[in-house]
Amino acid sequence: MKIKTKEINRKIKVKSTTDNLSRIRDFIHKTGMECKLKKEAIGEIILAVDEACTNVIKHAYHFSPEGEIEINVKCKNNKFSVSITDKGEKFNIKDIKDPDLEEYHKEKRVGGLGIFLMKKLMDEVKYSHLTGNRNRVTLVKYLPN
Amino acid sequence: MKETVNFELRKEDDIAIFKLLEKDFDAQIAGLVKGELTILLTADDINKLIFDLSEVEYCDSSGLSAILLAFRILQTREGHIRIASPTKSVKTLIEISQLDRVLPVTNTVKEAINELKNI
Question: Fewest CB within 10 angstroms: A61, A104, B22, B44, which?
Fold first, then answer.
């Protein structure tokens, strides 16, 4: 039986603390369920969004709890799209090369794994710098017809 | 940011078994776990470690980086590590990240103990 995804728009705004990561995950889970996504796809999107928000907390806001993270979810035209917007330090994921994972794990390197996971789990990962010194990462998952 | 992390530590002969008693292994507790593991591995001079993930339902790259830290500390002194009993979603993450290529994963803690006893 074909399951039709539901068209929706949802938004959440949270402070830039790691305490809020579970709240963000719950929000994505709830929205994914509402959109009738498969459990596996929801799990992948949750992890990708978690990685993107962790990057914002660590690299854009440097663990300052006063920053804001806005997460917009759109489920439309067989696409589940999540945009994560912050006003922290400019950080372009295009500048980060995918690590050679085996070497990465053995060496004393840190960072880069989260971005690798985002690219691996999602169909599109886009970065944009917006007016008002805002950064936006958009993660898109294509949904089966 | 949390100030404490829940875990259980036991020893079987020369093997330390670190069981994380948290459902979410993310950036909120990864730093605390790194601290506990560093103390355990350096102050207690442990060379064989089992990281029991049976209680962890969710893990991200921050959690994996804590496990990697333990691996790297042990690597400097030719120690050994096993990741034991990961739940399905955590096992999938370990495979996607190819962590299983450098860190042996066992289905149970007992299996991990048997492997480390034979080293």
Answer: B44
